[in-house]
Amino acid sequence: MLIGAWRAFPAAAVLTGLGILVGVAYTLRALQLAFFGEATEPAALAAVAHAAGNGGGLGGTAEFEPISVAERVGAIILMAATLVIGLYPRLLLDLIVPSFSTPLFDGLRKAVAL
């Protein structure tokens, strides 16, 4: 797919390739931490256990580390992209819909017309 996109949109193909590499690196890191990292007790569970030990109530407070700048930027980019595509889906549809008029979809059009 990236090879086909290279002819029409080389910059988009390069960005997509880089995005795939970042996604693979993130997934491998998450798997490494999930399966081979140190076993630690999450802060929320520690707070509940601490509160339960002090009379059984849930009055404990969870101590979470503040999110980093990179996490904030990533979240902002995802929220902005979701909002823009949600409000203006034509941005992507104008790129996608012309592909349906290719000969590849002739058989599908005939099957749907039945």
Describe the structure.
With 114 residues, the chain is mostly helical. It has a domain at 67-114. The protein contains six helices and no strands. It has helices at 2-8, 10-36, 43-53, 69-87, 90-96, 106-113. α1 (2-8) packs antiparallel against α2 (10-36). The protein is elongated. The mean pLDDT is 83.
Brief write-up:
This protein is mainly alpha-helical. Helices cover 69% and strands 0% of the residues.
List the helices and strands and how they pair.
Blueprint: H1 2-8, H2 10-36, H3 43-53, H4 69-87, H5 90-96, H6 106-113
Helix pairs in contact: 1-2
Key terms:
single chain; about 110 residues; mainly alpha; 6 helices; about 70% helix
| Main sheet attributes: strand count, strand direction, barrel closure | none
Distance between the termini: 30 Å
Q: Helices and strands, in N-to-C order?
A: HHHHHH
Tell me the strand percentage band: under 5%
Structural class: mainly alpha
Total count of strands? 0
Give the overall average pLDDT: 83
Low-confidence stretches: none
How much helicity do the residues have? 55-70%
Overall geometry comes to: elongated
Oligomer: single chain
> Number of helix segments?
6
